[in-house]
Write a structure and sequence with these properties.
Number of helices: 15
Order of helices and strands: HEHHHEHEEHHEHHHEHEHEHEHEH
Structural class: alpha/beta
Radius of gyration: 19 Å
Low-confidence stretches: none
Number of strands: 10
Distance between the termini: 13 Å
Strand content: 5-15%
Largest sheet: 8 strands, parallel
Oligomer: single chain
Length: 332
């Protein structure tokens, strides 16, 4: 297995160009659970099991990054929001209690080193960073998406029209929550931290610039890791605004045509994606995956600032051999 020994001193762009091949970033969701025979919360609550899973994924999927079990609801959980906790899928919120300005004012920013499972997850990430000699990739929900989780999408979007004071206060709180947590994740050794803002696809460009850009930029400015952003859906009208957030990498949905997108991305920002994780990698044949991956590599051949990846995270039941095919074809 290939490792790049001096990656810690590189930029993300330098890293993906450090060998004469394409690199691959796999957002693998809960796919590793079947490899180790644990449930999600058995891994979430045990740093040793988390390290075991990360080592197994590194063994089975020869990617260029190391991974923890994605923990997108950890901030909501730390705030006391009730979650649905399936055994082999991500937890998800089942209530949205923060409806008023008074509700927001009662909230306290969680301490990443003391609150809920945050300290346990930080220990898990520290173990992975110290025991696998590859850049550790961690995806963390952004402040607008966290606000949707705790307030509800319909209520938050209506409030942009009817109660902007509440919206501003809520987003300032979620920004501080994400800012504290991402800084702690950075400090324990995560090398590439990606902010995921799928909820922001619901916004107009003007509202995205007002509510999303300054808060995410403040969060990312506070880090000394590689920094990225991912938004699902058609982000054509948001590309320039995403770039304003001070990112090293931009990850986009599989519905976008990268032959059209790539010329719009600055040379010093890495374009990441965008193999279809559902119909192609999740449900396609190995031959179909190989053909599509080769074609994407050909389309991106003129661009040094390209990192092959999926358009979003995998389906939980993605066949192991399908993901292996995408990774190996991309890295050949």
């Amino acid at each position: 297995m290939i490792t790049i020994k001096n990656w810690r001193d590189m930029t993300l762009l330098e890293y993906v160009n450090s060998e004469n091949r394409r690199f691959f970033l796999a957002d693998m969701g809960t796919n590793g659970l079947e490899l180790v025979g644990y449930t999600a919360y058995e891994v979430y609550e045990d740093p040793k099991k988390q390290l075991e899973l990360a080592k197994k994924m590194d063994e089975v999927f020869e990617s260029d990054f190391s991974y923890s079990l994605c923990d997108g609801a950890i901030c909501s959980e730390a705030l006391g929001i009730k979650l649905l906790k399936p055994k082999y899928d991500f937890p998800s919120v089942i209530e949205h209690p923060i409806k008023t300005l008074e509700d927001v004012r009662k909230l306290e920013v969680p301490d990443p080193y003391k609150t809920g499972r945050m300290p346990v997850n930080l220990e898990s990430l520290r173990l992975i960073a110290n025991n696998i000699d590859k850049p550790l990739y961690v995806s963390i929900q952004g402040p607008f998406t966290l606000a949707i989780q705790i307030a509800g999408a319909t209520h938050l979007l209506k409030s942009i029209i009817t109660n902007r004071e509440y919206v501003e206060a809520l987003l300032d709180f979620t920004k501080e929550t994400i800012k504290a947590y991402t800084r702690a994740v950075n400090d324990v050794g995560a090398k590439y931290i990606q902010i995921a803002e799928p909820g922001a696809i619901t916004l107009s460009p003007a509202d995205f610039e007002k509510y999303v850009v300054p808060r995410n930029k403040e969060i990312l400015d506070n880090l000394d890791s590689w920094k990225g952003m991912h938004i699902c859906g058609d982000t054509t009208e948001l590309l320039d605004l995403m770039i304003k957030c001070n990112i090293d990498g931009i990850s986009l949905d599989q519905i976008l045509d990268y032959k059209v997108v790539a010329p719009k991305i600055p040379d010093d920002i890495v374009l990441i994606g965008n193999l279809d994780p559902i119909e192609l990698v999740g449900r396609g044949t190995r031959e179909e995956i190989k053909k599509a991956t080769v074609q994407l590599k050909k389309d991106m051949e003129p661009y040094d600032n390209y990192l092959c990846a999926l358009g979003c995270n995998c389906l939980n039941d993605t066949p192991v051999e399908n993901l292996q095919e995408a990774i190996s074809t991309a890295r050949t």
